[in-house]
Design a protein that fits this description.
- This is DNA-binding response regulator, NarL/FixJ family, contains REC and HTH domains.
- Pfam families: GerE (PF00196), Response_reg (PF00072).
- GO terms for molecular function: DNA binding.
- This protein is α/β, with parallel strands linked by helices.
- The protein has two domains: 125 residues, Response regulator (Rossmann fold, 3-Layer(aba) Sandwich), CATH 3.40.50.2300; 75 residues, Arc Repressor Mutant, subunit A (Orthogonal Bundle), CATH 1.10.10.10.
- It is built from eleven helices and five strands; from the N terminus they run E-H-E-H-E-H-E-H-E-H-H-H-H-H-H-H.
- It has a five-stranded parallel β-sheet with strand order 2-1-3-4-5, with helices on both faces.
- Helix 9 packs across helix 10.
- The longest helix is centred in the last third of the chain and has 14 residues.
- It is globular and about 50 Å long.
- The relative contact order is 0.11.
Length: 218
C-alpha cells in the first residue's frame, strides 16, 4: 500500500487529489496539511511513502518543507513530490536541490497523476528528459562542485549516472550497459551514496552541476 500525505493550502485541490487517490486499491491518503510546517509535522507522525507538497504556501513554503523532510534521517523513506501551477521554473529547481523526487503540474491528467505517484513510490525520479534539458539550459550554467567529487565514481558508475540524467530507468540502463537490472541499480545506488544524493532526482541535478554530464551544445 502506498501511503500519501497531501500538503496544499487550497482545500478544494486537496479534496480533488484525495478523491483520485482514495479510489485506488494500492494507495491510501494518511493525512492532509494546509501548510508546510504542518506537513513536516504530519510527515514525522505518519511516515508516508509520498508527500505531495504545494510549492507556494503561507507560513512555510514547499521548498523549505522539502528541505526539512530531506534533512531528517527519520524521514529518509519519504519521497517528496512538488505540486506547482506553473511547470518547471526556478522554484521547482530549488525544490529538487532541496531533496524533492520530482514535481507535478496541478492540471495533470488523472491517470498521469496516479502513474506519477506510483513511480515516485518506487524511488524513481519524476524528471522526463525534456525537463532535464530545461533544468540544464536554465539553471545549470557551470559546474558547482570540484572534480575531486567525480574521482569517487568508477567508470561504470559514471556511465550509469549519465544515463540516469537522460531519464532512463534501471531496466533501460541495464540494456544500454549490457548488464543485469540489479547491477544497474547497484551502480546507481553507489553513485548516489558517493555524491550524497538523496534520490535519483538529486543525482540528475548533481550530475550536471558537477560537470559529470554536459548539456548538448555546451
Amino acid at each position: 500500500m502506498i501511503r500519501v500525505l497531501l500538503v496544499d493550502d487550497q482545500p478544494l485541490l486537496r479534496s480533488g487529489f484525495r478523491a483520485l487517490l482514495d479510489i485506488e486499491d494500492d494507495i491510501e491518503v494518511v493525512a492532509e496539511a494546509a501548510d508546510g510546517r504542518e506537513g513536516v509535522e504530519l510527515a514525522r507522525r505518519y511516515l508516508p511513502d509520498i508527500a505531495l507538497i504545494d510549492i507556494e504556501m503561507p507560513d512555510l513554503d514547499g521548498i523549505e518543507a522539502t528541505r526539512r523532510i530531506a534533512a531528517d534521517p527519520a524521514l529518509a523513506g519519504v519521497h517528496v513530490v512538488i505540486l506547482t501551477n506553473y511547470g518547471f521554473d526556478e522554484y521547482v529547481f530549488n525544490a529538487l536541490r532541496a531533496g524533492a523526487a520530482g514535481f507535478l503540474v496541478k492540471d495533470i491528467e488523472p491517470e498521469d497523476f496516479l502513474h506519477a505517484v506510483r513511480v515516485a513510490a518506487r524511488g524513481d525520479a519524476l524528471l522526463a528528459p525534456s525537463i532535464t534539458r530545461k533544468l540544464i539550459d536554465r539553471y545549470v550554467t557551470r559546474p558547482l562542485t570540484t572534480g575531486a567529487v567525480l574521482t569517487e565514481l568508477t567508470n561504470r558508475e559514471r556511465e550509469a549516472v549519465s544515463l540516469v540524467a537522460q531519464g532512463l530507468s534501471n531496466d533501460e540502463i541495464a540494456d544500454r550497459m549490457v548488464i543485469s537490472p540489479l547491477t544497474a541499480k547497484t551502480h546507481v545506488n553507489r553513485a548516489m551514496t558517493k555524491l550524497h544524493a538523496r534520490d535519483r532526482a538529486q543525482l540528475v541535478v548533481l550530475a550536471y552541476e558537477s560537470g559529470l554530464v554536459v548539456a548538448r551544445g555546451s
